[in-house]
């Protein structure tokens, strides 16, 4: 909690640590109320650092110090100084052993950082700076130590005691206690430390690595969840194999453990050999989890597994380098998902996520580069920019190099930096060395915030058969970066002739004949002119294929161009993008003028897509999914919340009416023969079926309504149940109330499903949702202490329900700031995250602006705000 203004940490101030800690020997006497932590630390002066004043400063927060010994001698109070967040020892030798004993209180730890209680178990979360809440330490990622962990606890309450590495011994102790010792042979930063204590059941399996070693795989859950771990285990084995094949990475320890906990601030955590997961990303069965949940589990399991190399074996020098591990690991999990599922559908999901979450961040007050240069609270920088834009930077480099060279570059990176704490620059240097390229200009992507625009114009010279594209790139200013430099980016271009066939992209000076198809060009200048030869007729440009760079492309496509791309493009991303552009154009016109005519040829294009037997149903579903209301809002100078929502409904009901037969046919045809199967094919068919149902439900009609009700009543998988429930609830009144009641009664014992029950209500566009959410906050199942619950109710309203959250009376904003103020003292990380949707208040009409600003100011005026909330709210009002 801050009293004065918390000050920013700056990349420019980075200094290597003056001391290193070679060995760490920890002993925990675990108990919910009072845990004692005994630490034996071996310090030595870092030869690579400059000598300071001979003192040592350790990080430590909320620790009750009960013993402090240097080289076996208890220190007197005159020899050290204890501050709120540090322990300073006035004089230390070059090499010494330090012994501390502290007391901590897991059951009072509502911030879920450090050691905390989750239901009946004890667990830890140390990234980024949680280890300092466990013991005094050099809590920074460039201090790598070997850890040995002894856990002592009551045998009955905590029969399972886990920590990183290999099991050394298990011993019974007197008075019903036992002791378990773990040793991790790999030096690691303390943010990768973890321990678990609890009465847990385990699912076990094995994996044989490429070199023939057998690895024990274990997933620990509370006993009643044992039958919902199968999907996670399969995903883990797939990920292990894939990383061997695609990146040549073999697992190193003999044991890989995953623990599912129900109170967790984010998705999961890659602690060495002992991943701790939000149970949402482990537990699944077709009756309780949606297809999206199944896919989320597969990708998060893979993500954490991949961190073993990109994060753990090679870690970050400092937290400004967070994208070194997160950007690269997201790239790896995206590639994994693309290869086990559909590449096009995955790429569309990546692009949609970037547009919906990262582009707005880049355009708002919290805009920051992939490698930020300052922060107040590092927890605020686990962002779409660091993760997802960071992944795009890796992807662009992979694209510039091509698969073989890129693999050689990653091989070199793994080999050269294994066991080190490095920077994003070290990564780029490996790419440069292997490829012989100069990426000096490309490096700007890491330092420059903001989403670049590509403004494109084209003309065709029918007599000389020339097609010319003029591309101008520019990036709008962001806070603290008024002037932007041009970037180096891959621009994947295809050209379609009037029959939809690919033309060769032949350029002046080509020595070889170009095959028809995609050509990757490189842009570096503010303006580039591309002159394609040998085109008799004007082609339709298919630009930024595969979303080759994370930019906003502007070009005056005609409707006919877009329809052509939607119909013929081989590139799934560009097909989808064309559909998005058609819908966006229409939706924005309808927003301004509800009497706008919806052209028949556009409707026909969507009909053709629905009828296309050659296209993956998942892709068809994507083509029929409109750009989100919040994305449309970002395209307007002054957001018209109600107009956008009305336009959405209008287009849905127009398609629902004019495509009625085809939608009905798609619905019937994709009624799943294998409703509990979660293969990509089955998932795609359910998506299409449920999208068809949603468009049909936009038109009032008894027949569809009955269909939806029947689906709700008879579905035996959560995807179909929930899709129908959402539509019934949006329908309003009695149509939704009875199903909600039934759903609640059926699932009241399964918290992850009750989360869905809350979120369906909070994300409903029906009138009075804000009031209903306030009511639900008083429901006995609601709790501010469980992040999943907070996200499912408050998060769903504020982040996934534009029209109700931005209700003109300001009630949504009021609710948000009330919750933030109540939550901040309990869990600052979650409180700060909730504020996101009002950060871009400047983009709304005067009335809403004033209301949002008032709530932000009210938050900021509060005396004891966390650094987390302070940073976000103050930057928003700057
Ligand atoms: N490293 C974890 C992951 O991406 C996330 C940790 C997030 N930590 C935080 N303080 N927000 O897999
Ligand atoms: Zn990660």
UniProtKB/TrEMBL annotation:
<dbReference type="InterPro" id="IPR001930">
    <property type="entry name" value="Peptidase_M1"/>
</dbReference>
<comment type="similarity">
    <text>Belongs to the peptidase M1 family.</text>
</comment>
<dbReference type="InterPro" id="IPR035414">
    <property type="entry name" value="Peptidase_M1_pepN_Ig-like"/>
</dbReference>
<comment type="function">
    <text>Aminopeptidase N is involved in the degradation of intracellular peptides generated by protein breakdown during normal growth as well as in response to nutrient starvation.</text>
</comment>
<dbReference type="InterPro" id="IPR038438">
    <property type="entry name" value="PepN_Ig-like_sf"/>
</dbReference>
<dbReference type="GO" id="GO:0016285">
    <property type="term" value="F:alanyl aminopeptidase activity"/>
</dbReference>
<dbReference type="InterPro" id="IPR037144">
    <property type="entry name" value="Peptidase_M1_pepN_C_sf"/>
</dbReference>
<dbReference type="InterPro" id="IPR024601">
    <property type="entry name" value="Peptidase_M1_pepN_C"/>
</dbReference>
<dbReference type="GO" id="GO:0008237">
    <property type="term" value="F:metallopeptidase activity"/>
</dbReference>
<keyword id="KW-0479">Metal-binding</keyword>
<dbReference type="InterPro" id="IPR014782">
    <property type="entry name" value="Peptidase_M1_dom"/>
</dbReference>
<dbReference type="InterPro" id="IPR045357">
    <property type="entry name" value="Aminopeptidase_N-like_N"/>
</dbReference>
<dbReference type="Pfam" id="PF17432">
    <property type="entry name" value="DUF3458_C"/>
</dbReference>
<keyword id="KW-0378">Hydrolase</keyword>
<dbReference type="Pfam" id="PF11940">
    <property type="entry name" value="DUF3458"/>
</dbReference>
<keyword id="KW-0862">Zinc</keyword>
<feature type="domain" description="Peptidase M1 alanyl aminopeptidase Ig-like fold">
    <location>
        <begin position="450"/>
        <end position="555"/>
    </location>
</feature>
<keyword id="KW-0482">Metalloprotease</keyword>
<dbReference type="Pfam" id="PF17900">
    <property type="entry name" value="Peptidase_M1_N"/>
</dbReference>
<keyword id="KW-0645">Protease</keyword>
<dbReference type="Pfam" id="PF01433">
    <property type="entry name" value="Peptidase_M1"/>
</dbReference>
<dbReference type="InterPro" id="IPR012779">
    <property type="entry name" value="Peptidase_M1_pepN"/>
</dbReference>
<feature type="domain" description="Peptidase M1 membrane alanine aminopeptidase">
    <location>
        <begin position="232"/>
        <end position="445"/>
    </location>
</feature>
<dbReference type="InterPro" id="IPR027268">
    <property type="entry name" value="Peptidase_M4/M1_CTD_sf"/>
</dbReference>
<feature type="domain" description="Peptidase M1 alanyl aminopeptidase C-terminal">
    <location>
        <begin position="560"/>
        <end position="877"/>
    </location>
</feature>
<feature type="domain" description="Aminopeptidase N-like N-terminal">
    <location>
        <begin position="104"/>
        <end position="192"/>
    </location>
</feature>
<dbReference type="GO" id="GO:0008270">
    <property type="term" value="F:zinc ion binding"/>
</dbReference>
<protein>
    <recommendedName>
        <fullName>Aminopeptidase N</fullName>
        <ecNumber>3.4.11.2</ecNumber>
    </recommendedName>
</protein>
<dbReference type="GO" id="GO:0006508">
    <property type="term" value="P:proteolysis"/>
</dbReference>
<keyword id="KW-0031">Aminopeptidase</keyword>
<dbReference type="InterPro" id="IPR042097">
    <property type="entry name" value="Aminopeptidase_N-like_N_sf"/>
</dbReference>
